[in-house]
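PROTEIN FOLDING TASK:
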Amino acid sequence: MARGIEIREAHFPGRAPIDTYGNGGFRFADMSHRGSIMCLPSGIYGWDMDMTKPLSIENFQKVLDEAAQIEFLLLGTGTEMRPIPPDLKAALRAAGISSDPMNTGAAVRTFNIMLLESRAVAAAMIAV
């Protein structure tokens, strides 16, 4: 029996380079996603974040949950660079994660290079 459309949390269960970004989203693994994303060891997830929302510990809980597999977090903050708030920076550091904010374009390029090098990298990127 048909149940209609089922809405699921956006998730790609693997690691993949980002092919393109812009127009409010990203393309990767022959797919596209409208909105922001988190690229974690467990996969690529849709992320309910935009340039108007605060960079808070709560918004990075998935990163902290996978901290044992992450050495470096790239934070793509949109079109302009935003600093990481001290409490979030301290929480990441306490979990053993180095972090670096940059505009989203720079985060995409750096993530792809680090992924190619098989580094323990994660990225949280706000769509532009």
About this structure: Residues 104-116 form the longest helix (13 residues). The mean pLDDT is 93.
